[in-house]
Specification:
477 residues, alpha/beta, 12-stranded mixed β-sheet, 20 strands, 39% helix, 18% strand, elongated
Length: 477
């Protein structure tokens, strides 16, 4: 696992390293500059480089970068001071531009001359490398401060920053690598990123002497006449099996039995009463599904009081792991979120940003500006695990927080989130560490998208394709 820090956490670590450990700020500048220069040299063996520096600490790092690239590594280097020098230097030809204008402390929008300089960098056609954070990118939110450098590579000093991955940070940061320069990091209140080895632990070698009852039962509860998504819902249940669950059930409206029957013979079909293709509350039937290890509910069910009452019943009577998604969340938002407080089961909610806004009654801009803290606050208030879905997803129970950065634009398709519910339900059927298991499911989900995009393209990937790539993803761990 790797840590991702806020600006305050990084500042506190800097101060502790300087004031308590006695490592001077000038020494840290030398180390940072050397780390960036060495990383550039490891990727490029020469070339014409323009190093753009500002007035602050990031600019001091850049001075060291320029010196070492020229004197130690033999690059043809020119230094450009953004606050003083003439922008005509951009008329010259360069292979690489190193961006050291603004660092993580930027607190105002970029205008005037600095805006022009960043536009010139972005339009240069050069390979752009940002030191620590793309100039103009908010290091906490990942939002451009008016404008920001679009880097091909960002070399993070010591630790990843939240802004590298949240919101637009993914598009402005390019590939991000972190370089250790000896700043002391302590405490545990950091967001974490999983890596392949972390996820591989969930798919270790099994004993030969096992049977299907060893690996849990998962159930997908969804569908309606309006949103039957037959193949998709069935594939969700199949995804549960492919994540290692021993059994997978599909619970659907009774009138849609013929739509779902036989689509995936591996999945066991259960029907529940409905009215004109939409499920209705029936306590007797619900009592028969309380034995599952995990249930995912809400996908394609429609927003209704019946759906709300079904979820309320499960919350009070079910003792397993309940994943609430899509119309399940919208029904709760419509009829009362407080039912989440009274429960016997472990609850995971998987809202996208719009659904989270409805649940929390907070507008989209505020959620995007403070997504981690708002997700943590909601998780603590209602005693649930939140998987706030976006290009970078936030998974938190209010105590432990993971961010998932796997995935690609090809996954921005209807039905993708439903597939994630299937993956999560299957994995939770056999795993007990709720928040990390949800993070693992999110990681694998993103990797499925990456595999699809590599083998096809970002336009033609569908939700069903994601399931098809799952065996390849697991084999790659």
């Amino acid at each position: 696992m790797e840590r991702v820090l806020s600006c305050k956490q990084m500042r506190d670590a800097d101060l502790f390293t300087i004031e308590t450990l006695g490592i001077s700020s000038s020494e840290l500048v030398e180390r940072a500059g050397a780390a960036v220069a060495d990383e550039i040299f490891s990727r490029f063996k020469g070339g014409r480089v323009l190093v753009c520096v500002g007035k602050g600490n990031n600019g001091e790092d850049g001075m060291v970068v320029a010196k070492l690239l020229s004197q130690k590594h033999g690059f043809n280097v020119k230094l450009f001071c953004a606050s003083m020098d003439d922008v005509k230097i951009f008329d010259e030809s360069f292979d690489i531009i190193v961006d050291c204008i603004f660092g993580t402390g930027l607190s105002r929008n970029i205008t005037d001359n600095y805006k022009q300089i960043i536009e010139l960098i972005n339009n240069s056609g050069c390979y752009v490398i940002s030191c620590d954070i793309s100039s103009g990118l908010n290091a906490d939110t990942g939002k451009p401060m008016g404008i920001a450098v679009r880097a091909d590579l960002t070399i993070a000093i010591q630790e990843y920053k939240l802004g590298h991955f949240l919101n637009d940070g993914l598009d402005y940061s390019g590939k991000v690598v972190a370089k250790d320069i000896g700043i002391s990091i302590w405490g545990e209140d950091f967001a974490l990123i999983l890596n392949n080895s972390d996820v591989a632990n969930y798919f270790g070698k099994r004993n030969r002497n096992v049977h299907k009852g060893c690996f849990g039962k998962c159930a997908i509860f969804g569908g309606s006449k309006q949103f039957f998504g037959s193949a998709l819902l069935s594939l969700n249940a199949l995804a549960g099996l492919k994540m290692g669950s021993g059994y997978a059930y599909l619970i659907v409206p009774e009138s849609l039995f013929s739509t779902y029957a036989g689509l995936n013979p591996e999945c066991i079909l259960i029907t529940v009463p409905d009215k004109e293709g939409f499920v209705i509350f029936d306590q007797e039937i619900l009592q028969k599904i309380l034995h599952f290890d995990s249930i995912a509910i809400g996908m394609g069910m429609g927003v209704s009081e019946d759906v709300y009452n079904i979820i309320a019943y499960l919350l009070k009577n079910y003792h397993g792991k309940l994943i609430i998604d899509a119309d399940g969340l919208n029904s709760i938002a419509t009829h009362g979120v407080d039912i989440l407080k009274d429960k016997k089961c472990s609850v995971v909610i998987t809202p996208h940003v719009g659904e989270f806004c409805r649940l929390s009654n907070i507008d989209k801009e505020k959620v995007e500006q403070n997504s981690i803290e708002l997700a943590k606050s909601f998780a603590l208030k209602y005693g649930v695990t939140v998987c706030l879905k976006s290009a970078t997803s936030i998974i938190t129970d209010g105590s432990d927080t993971f961010i998932n950065i796997t995935g690609c634009s090809g996954m921005a398709k209807a039905g993708s989130g439903d597939v994630l519910s299937g993956l999560t339900c299957g994995l939770l059927a056999r795993c007990d560490d709720i928040v990390e298991t949800v993070a693992v499911a999110s990681y694998i989900f993103g990797k499925c998208g990456e595999f699809c995009q590599e083998e096809g393209n970002e336009y033609s990937t569908t939700a069903s394709d994601l399931i098809s790539s799952l065996p390849k993803v697991l084999n790659s761990l």
